[in-house]
Design goal:
The complex is a heterodimer of chains A (148) and B (354). Chain A is built from one helix and twelve strands. By secondary structure, chain A is mainly beta. Chain B has two domains: 163 residues, no CATH class; 118 residues, Immunoglobulin-like (Sandwich). The chains are: A mainly beta (148), B mainly beta (354).
Chain lengths: 148, 354
């Protein structure tokens, strides 16, 4: 009887999982047939705006919770103000050092001895917090950055 | 990849630091993202992902050419090696070869407010400096030289000025730089077709320069205009005469009869904008005067008008007449030496009618 109970418990534990994956892609804007289209980032020169899209997929059977996506702004790139978004509900915060994240109004820099609100181009990382991602569901977060 | 190797191996020239050029061509830019999450309140293993290898920054070929003179260079007819000054700046994100071509403008183009009205002699002699003007290297037409990222070179274009140009004429010229593949001067072209994410493509991104000379945006060429303006002496010679005396009337209302003494006044007026030097006037004495030429001199600045053929007193300061020769002969040379801009100098010869 005891052995049978353990078997049931083990089956129950194994079935409670969320097979979450994340995929990162980079795109750039291109005019094709007079239409602005986002294509795979490849011909990138200083000044080119690149859009980074991170797609999260929950292939498991259970809901994933408190999904925290942290994306350092790539080297040589400058974050474009207001470009961070998510496909559903999320909270977006930013960091000047990759460690401490907060809202833009609470990020400060010291310049010539004076404290000022940090510019978006000074952000070093972006963080999205998505409360839940249901089983078999997808979601995405994105931001734009310009090559220095 | 070939482009990267070329960039790494070629000699980099130019004085540095003047221009922000952005991320260097060939740099790999990769995005990395981390996902943390929980399931049923239990933290799961963090997941990392990136956008593959990211991308390689392509070669943004960008540069400018400018004339530094601020106005046409003042030249005199017949002068040689007259220099105009230019700057070629590499504002792209890779070291870049450039070749140069200087040409005459021929269509009345207006540069610094002055329309083109004449041409310099050609070909031009071009030199360039990579050390801020300390030394200039000869440029061989058709070849190319490399300019480092963010650097610029000073360029001199030297032209000979035709003797035939006149005061106030304008000779405008164009200097065009063309991006090249290598020192051999092969013209650089943009990478065509779809981008290859794993290679450094060529993107021509320079502006138009002087569009009226055929440069279009992003054609790998950039040009600028400068030029020369002629500042020279403009001399005019006027010869008049009066009667000093005759054997019958003496100096009272003398007439031009045999034995009469005449005075020739030869004015040299300089209406140009530059002084003239080594000015001489040769005058062949007519046979009717024999070898009577006498009292030769040249006087500066003041040329009293001769009216009614009556001679007044000669005025003005006598110039040094070391080169004035021919008294007592049939061939006279008057030496005016220097005639300043705006001045009129007078030479005098007295002769007797045979």
């Amino acid at each position: 009887m005891k052995k049978g109970f353990l078997s049931v418990l083990l089956i129950f534990t194994l079935s409670a999982y969320a097979n979450v994956e994340i995929k990162s892609e980079s795109f750039q804007e291109k005019i094709i047939n007079k239409q602005n289209t986002w294509v795979k980032a490849a011909r990138v020169i200083p000044g080119t705006k690149v859009r980074y899209i991170n797609t999260i997929s929950n292939n498991g059977a259970d809901t994933a919770e408190n999904l925290v996506i942290t994306n350092p702004v790539p080297n040589h790139m400058r974050y474009v103000e207001g470009s961070a978004k998510c496909s559903g509900a999320c909270i977006i915060t930013y960091s000047l050092n990759g460690k401490f994240f907060d809202m833009p109004a609470k990020l400060f820099m010291i310049e010539n001895g004076q404290k000022r609100v940090a510019k978006a181009t000074e952000y070093k990382a972006i963080r999205w917090v998505v409360q839940t991602l249901g089983a078999k569901q997808n979601s995405s977060v994105q931001f734009d950055a310009t090559l220095e | 990849m070939k482009k990267i190797l070329v960039i790494a191996s070629m000699m980099l020239l130019g004085f540095s630091g003047a221009y922000a050029v952005g991320t260097v061509a060939g740099t790999q830019v990769q995005n990395s993202v981390t996902l943390n999450y929980t399931v049923g309140g239990i933290g799961q293993t963090a997941i990392n992902a990136n956008d593959g290898a990211g991308f390689l920054v392509d070669d943004k070929v960008d540069f400018t050419v400018a004339n530094n003179d601020g106005a046409q260079i003042t030249v005199t007819p017949g002068s040689t090696g007259q220099i105009t000054n230019w700057t070629l700046a590499n504002t792209g994100n890779a070291a870049q070869f450039f070749k140069l071509a200087a040409t005459n403008l021929t269509g009345g183009e207006i540069v610094y407010g002055n329309a083109d009205t004449a041409d310099t002699s050609t070909p031009y002699t071009i030199t360039y400096s990579t050390d801020g003007g300390t030394t200039y290297n000869p440029y061989t037409p058709g070849t190319a030289f490399s300019v480092a990222i963010g650097a610029s070179v000073l360029i001199r274009v030297a032209a000979d000025i035709p003797l035939s140009v006149t005061n106030g004429q304008v000779m405008n010229i164009q200097l065009e730089a063309t991006a090249a593949v290598d020192a051999g001067g092969t013209t650089l072209t943009a990478t065509s077709g779809p981008d290859n994410i794993g290679s450094v493509d060529i993107v021509l991104a320079e502006g138009t320069g002087i569009t009226t000379q055929g440069n279009t945006p992003f054609d790998g060429k950039f040009s600028a205009w400068g030029g020369y303006i002629v500042q020279s002496a403009a001399l005019a010679v006027t010869k008049t005469s009066c009667v000093i005396s005759d054997p019958v009337n003496g100096t009272t209302n003398p007439k031009r009869i045999p034995g009469a003494v005449l005075r020739y006044q030869i004015q040299v007026a300089n209406t140009g904008t530059s002084g003239a030097t080594s000015v001489t006037v040769a005058d062949a004495i007519p046979t009717e005067f024999g070898t009577s030429a006498a009292n030769l001199d040249v006087r500066s600045a003041v040329c009293p008008a001769i009216s009614s053929g009556v001679c007044g007193a000669k005025t003005g300061t006598v110039e040094t007449n070391a080169g004035t020769t021919g008294a007592g002969t049939s061939s006279v040379t008057l030496d005016y030496a220097a005639v300043a801009a705006g001045d009129t100098n007078c030479g005098y010869i007295e002769v007797t009618i045979q």
